Amino acid sequence: MKHLTFLVIALFAAGAIAQEKPAAKEEAKPEPQKEAAKPAPTKSAASGKKGPRRWNEDARHCLEKTSNTEVIKCAEEYL
Predict the structure, then answer these.
(1) Euclidean distance between the first and final Cα of the chain, in Å?
(2) Measured between alpha carbons, how far is 20 from 43 in angstroms, rounded to an integer?
(3) Model pTM score
């Protein structure tokens, strides 16, 4: 049984290797647009979250909430 399994796997692998690979197409790269100098947005401003990340803190107290939506809203602060 082991020999048969090995043979089937080997045949599938050989078939995958033998297939023709499509030629790599060069994608047209758009020219960089010149924009007015804007300050780069901070990570917290871009994600809409406020304050430092709390992913290393304990969020088990959120499990004491009464509904699933309340638990999710509480736990999202720790992501």
Answers:
(1) 48
(2) 44
(3) 0.35
